[in-house]
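Sequence in, structure out. Go.
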Amino acid sequence: MHESILILDFGSQVTQLIARRIRELNIYCEIHPWNKAPEPGPGVRGVILSGSPYSVHQESAPLPVLDAYLGKLPVLGICYGAQLIAHLRGGQVVRSTHREYGRALLQQVNSSSRLLAGIPLQSQVWMSHGDTILDPGPGCALICSTPDVKCAGYEITGQSTFGVQFHPEVYHTTDGKRLLENFAVEICGCRQDWTPASFIDETVSRLKQELGRDLVIMGLSGGVDSTVAAVLIHRAIGPDLHCIFVDNGLLRKGEYEEVLHSYRHMGLNVKGVDASAQFYAALDGLTDPEAKRKAIGKTFIDVFDVESRKEKDARWLGQGTIYPDVIESVSATGGPSATIKSHHNVGGLPEYMKLKVVEPLRLLFKDEVRRVGRALEIDPAILGRHPFPGPGLGIRILGDITPQKVQLLQEVDAIWIQSLRAHGLYDEVWQAGAILLPVQSVGVMGDERTYEQAVALRAVNSTDGMTADWSRLPHEFLAQVSNDIINKVKGINRVVYDISSKPPATIEWE
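Output:
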């Protein structure tokens, strides 16, 4: 059992960033909704209370009893978490005279505080709160302030309990990683033994015991998550893993053949199934994004069920579920955070399939999956692939879907992605894709007027997909790509570049 940090989620949109920063320190941690908080087990070394969109004074505010943690384990409250501790202990939390968002500089720092060891004056922190702490409560000492917030941080004398009103987990807080390391390593005493190598050894050993000689079937997508999951299962049970790669007709140009080739080169037992006609039939006439997603998901289950029934001895279904999927699934069933996606892996397995699910990556974030993949010596070309949505081009074609539209977008997308690679820009962006717009526009080609389709190009930079900024690609490069698309793809006469960030926009258009 690894030593761990327990994170209670009060609904902040950046709670996952807390966990990612702790994991980057090679320390295991778990996120739990505040209203489903577990009793701390023997391996728990500390607790972090997340931020929240709530005020402690709201009638619906989450106000859990923290007696199981305060004074018994090291506790770090972040933003709302800090206000909650102060409020529960009889301190004074009030609405700010002006809401404080964005960058601030630490004006006073108590250098004797273990939490702030090594953090200098004028260190930049990131604020995002509407309430402020006037008095943290009896027995508390202030440890830092900013020009606008006197109590930017405090600690409870005689306890390893701390609160900060800024967000150390975000990149804008320049010494945030040092603060979290001070808490998790120096104060909680975690050993930092959560590494890719230890994860592989422990996971393969567990899978051997759990699966035995049972047959496992698994749907592969060509992406990082399913590939790494398949290699882990294959290490445990070898040829008893049977993989299925379904062509839904919504893949990128040439992707079906390329992925099958790469998997066979890795020694995996993979069967390809071309079911594009079934998907096109299921999507016929659908324009609503959610309806399209559900049709694609249902058809995949139907196709996979037919193929899996051919493996009569199968007992398990392998999935590439990762930790953000698990967190979103928990939130959607009673936790505090609103879920945005509706196409992740958790749940949705029909009962009639009678298979048990094995998810070797369900404890990992995307960056950790890639680290494990590198330790498994998986081809860097696979590990470096941009994320690609499960519904594929089905959510990059706005409006109804036809084979002709898919082929048109595949040609555009191929030019876009190949151009990024050719100019050394592919690895500079986190995700890129092309979107076929449901509009036609007037153009001039030669001496003729045209009335043809428009496409949008999208490229974003991100660390985890939760937030993203549009990529500042060279204008000359974008001009060349636009020219290539219009000249080489018949039916396209206008190209636009999406300069929207997330939030408020999402990465995908549907």
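Check: The radius of gyration is 25 Å. The mean pLDDT is 89.
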